[in-house]
Specification:
The structure holds 2 protein chains of 2 kinds. By secondary structure, chain A is an alpha/beta fold. Chain A is built from 13 helices and 17 strands. Helices cover 27% and strands 20% of the residues of chain A. In chain A, the strands form 4 sheets. Chain A has a 6-stranded mixed β-sheet, with helices on both faces. Chain B is mainly α. The longest helix of chain B is centred in the N-terminal third of the chain and has 24 residues. Classes of the chains: A alpha/beta, B mainly alpha.
Amino acid sequence: MKSKTFRKGIHPPDKKDLSKDSAREFFPPGGIVVIPLHQHIGAPAEPLVKKKDRVFRGQTIGRARGFVSAPVHASVSGQVKSVGSHLSPMGRQVLSVTIENDGNDELFPEIKPVRNDVIDYSPEEVRKAVSEAGIVGLGGAAFPTSVKLSPPEEYPTDVLVINGAECEPYLTTDFRLMIEEPDALIAGAEVIKQTVGAKKIFLGIEDNKEDAISLFEKKLTGRSDFQVVPLETRYPQGYEKTLIQTTVGRDVPKGGLPLHVGVLVQNVGTTVAVYETLKTGVPLIERSLTVTGEGIRTKKNLKARIGTLVADIVEHCGGYVGEKGKLIMGGPMMGVALWSDGIPIVKGTSGILVIPGGSLQEGKEHNCIRCNNCSACCPMNLVPTRIATLTRFSRFEEAREWGLMDCMECGTCSYVCPAKIPLVQWMRVGKVAVLKRDAK
Amino acid sequence: MKKTDYASPFKLGSSPHIRSKESVPKIMYWVVGSLAPAMAGAVFFFGANALRVFCISIITCLVTEYVFLAARKKSVSAVLDGSVLITAILFAMTLPPALKSSHVAIGAFVAVALGKHVFGGLGYNIFNPALVGRAFLQAAFPVAMTTWAPPLTQKGVDTLTFATPLAKFKFASAELSLAERLTDLDHLFFGHVGGCLGETSALLLLIGGGILLVKRYIDWRIPTGLFTTVFVLTGAVHLINPDLCAPPLFHLLAGGLLLGGFFMATDMVTSPITPKGTWIFAVGIGVLVVLIRVQGGLPEGVMYAILFMNAFVPILNRYTRPGILGEKGNRVG
């Protein structure tokens, strides 16, 4: 079957060979875990524990505040060492719960599945369970999943798209998850489909993951309501709006959401997390991630507890090698460069990536020569150099007309820019300024 | 006061953390390389004169660039980014082979100083610098700029009365038949004609232009729109009145159209950034070229046509914003 794709985009070296053959292994949490109460999009959770409290694994330690929010759970059993601000991956000080791990890994006694069989959950029960489990989008954006599972009534959802594109270079956690737990993924997709009342499921996978494509094609033979869609390996193939065009053939309007065209998109990691929570009753306290990059000794795919410190994981993988470079949480295109490895992994952490300085291709910044590479590759069809220039001169209204707020910061423009202009950074500067003006 | 230590053991910076291997100098030197066949052709057809003009132009441009960068307190290493070399070569290519050295130097200085640096240097100039230099010479030394030395491959031709193919067609006496006024197409194609240094051989320009198209260092819309417009318009006028306008293939191959269409109109800095704007820009140049060649007082109009449309680029950019994904059902394509 021929791979489908959107037009535009780029082909960065995918570097997935570094880690794609290493099966996910469980990484036992270290002596200390730090769990930020704000790991998701929306309001931060409210702490329910205080210093010296004893907590169990899976116990709620932060309560969701409001509809768009998510609770936070202890990922180990032990004693609360402190509740205070700690540097989060996003570079901010965030109220966090530090737990001293007692090593017993005792599960909170009240945890048990609501139903014995995942299929027996009613839509309402699924939403409640997902909400209480603190499940958020595990692809990186960390938007509360329960909100996505509750589309407003005027927009009935008829199609579910499972995003297995994993278009970020280096990362292989979704790939490993797909080939190691295909049945959990299929079951999770079925439950989500039932919950939102969809009729059809598409599973989009980039064609650099042939094993996964053929595995699911075999498992789903004869299913007309559940289809594998091979996608061309091209960044950002997994971007929600173009993914919907490619798989379903619908156009999400500018400024709109997938629900406006009756579609729900879920990442494969999130889908499996939903299934496991329903099956075991254990909330989201663990996730898969890839530890990779030329600057780390052993490349691995891990299952690690939320709150595990990056330094512990790096040590487990043989430590840093090569010259000083970037320590990145997430992929190379959209990930965040960390200031320190004393930062915990959070629900949205899809990978730990270490790139030595020499491989960064930073280069000297030139004036824009208007080569149009940025606009030729932008998946949103923006003209990034124009928006960046308007932002630089504080002409925010014009920047907005040119689509500043439609930019999703995929990094494509900065990647292709021969003048090495930090275009995405200018987009961020512009967005912050516009939001500030709007707030006034 | 105690200094807070914010040093991180890691490099920091905004995403994306990887970059392509593309760079400004790389693009510039590819353009220089793609001009090499036409430069070699110029030396082949015009000998020492061509070498002289190229050398003076390149040296003057490099020195001017260096002085202006230094005076503007910019990094002088930018002299080596390749952009000024392109200006120097293109400028030389638009000159008559026997032009006096002092004229070449004056034009080259104007190209870099007025064409590029008064606007703010690389990336900020509105007009193609090489053409600014040429336009200045055309205004300052009109006679010198229209005195054409025949190529070395053409023996026994009088320099004073020698004309370029376009001038021959336009200004030939009315007694001559149409066929006598035209130049053989194969001569135009391979370079057995007079004209500016860089415009004699269509073949060599096509090779260079082809390289840039394949490498995507020029926007295919510009040569496509420009050449199609010229072909269609001259074809139409030729059908109506063959005396007024030469056949379309003649117009494509003669004069500076290929040089301008592949290497000057496509200058990234001075062409639009939107696809729609680029089409308008290309077609606009084509229309102006035909207007000047057919109706104007000059035999050739590529230079003025490009400079004129350069002036429209900011406004074209402003009014031709591409549709954003999802805007009025827009699909990216």
